[in-house]
Amino acid sequence: MLYTLSRSPYACDVAALLRIEQSGDDLLLLSDGVIAGLAGSAAARALNASLLTLHALENDVVARGLFPYFSPNITIISYTDFVRLTEKQPQQLAW
């Protein structure tokens, strides 16, 4: 399953997402969802402790000026890589 988080972790229930995760699932942070990737934040700590493989869309991280503050445990990817994720995980759930 590919989960996409496009809302700030302060405006959605990240804990609910983490309750349904399974081994082999991917999570892509995009739009305001990239805020969840801030190093040291509660959301980043929770995501890093999960079974999910974590990704963030580069354009959204850069657009918000978060690149220097981003968790090194989250892979920053391009739009092309996003397409590859959708090919790898045919099922998607948007948060």
UniProtKB/TrEMBL annotation:
Location in the cell: Cytoplasm
Extract the SUPFAM superfamilies matched here.
DsrEFH-like
Is Transferase set as a keyword in this record?
no
Provide the GO biological process annotations.
tRNA wobble position uridine thiolation
Keyword annotations: Cytoplasm, tRNA processing
Q: What's a GO cellular component annotated to this UniProt protein?
A: sulfurtransferase complex
The entry's family comment says: Belongs to the DsrH/TusB family.
What is this protein identified as? Answer: Protein TusB
